[in-house]
Amino acid sequence: MIRQKILQQLLEWIECNLDHPISIEDIAQKSGYSRRNIQLLFRNFMHMPLGSYIRKRRLCRAAILVRLTAKSMLDIALSLHFDSQQSFSREFKKLFGCSPREYRLRDFWDLTNILPPLLTRQYQKTDCRLINLPETRIWGNSFKYDIEISNKPPDEEVKLRRNHLSRCLQNLKTDIYYVSTYTPSTKSVDLLTVETFAGTVCDHADTDMPKEWITAGGLYASFRYEGDWEYYANWVRNLYLIELPARGLVRVNGCDIERFYCNETFVEKNNNYVVCEIFIPVRPA
Known about the structure:
Elements (H helix, E strand, L loop, with lengths): L1 H15 L7 H8 L3 H12 L3 H19 L4 H7 L5 H12 L3 H6 L2 E2 L18 E6 L2 E13 L6 H18 L3 E9 L6 E10 L10 E5 L2 E11 H18 L2 E4 L3 E5 L12 E12 L1
Protein name: Helix-turn-helix domain-containing protein
GO molecular function: DNA-binding transcription factor activity; sequence-specific DNA binding
Pfam family, one: GyrI-like
């Protein structure tokens, strides 16, 4: 139990320091174990060498930056402490089967070889349904913000989306849809722009919402969440990192659609219980 706790702390420390130099000596010193013993402990519990884990986690973080930001390949390589852009590209292709540039330009996102932080392995699997959704008209308004790509959803983003949802539920008193797009920010190469259209499915005459969004029809992976809003964003992240690859699905271009079921108690500040479905556009790998 003590060893597992030490490993959990080390995994969290590694995640927070992927963009800093990390050596086995640093980890040994932090853990209180010798260099040899900490490597044996890690291999026995995690079933892979410590050095390989750090390298793969850096490559996977690089893949997310390549896909979601406009940051140059050189800047990504240097920020994650690869020796050069060439060595970064070589290691990237070994793991993902294509160059970083090809990975960025694809019209789909294959997360098959993404290694999530091993501390998320305790995540409970979620039931998935593959469904063909028709085009759907949603009336509402949009909001937009920029975020940094980090290992944890920013607190401000979590609060912003919750507050907007609470207002929509309070005003409309019906199920609320979030339709979200993700594009590299034009303000900074380090940022991701999230634009969300929030509204409801209804006749235009029945609502004061001025704008219309038509969701794209097609194949979607559907997942259902019931629980605390505080954990929802991490749950969604794990759908991408764990659930889609486990089911042989790749994310295609399009919008994520979230349907939040009407819940009057959610508008109360001290109640964060939410029930929703998320629909992610996919195809078989």
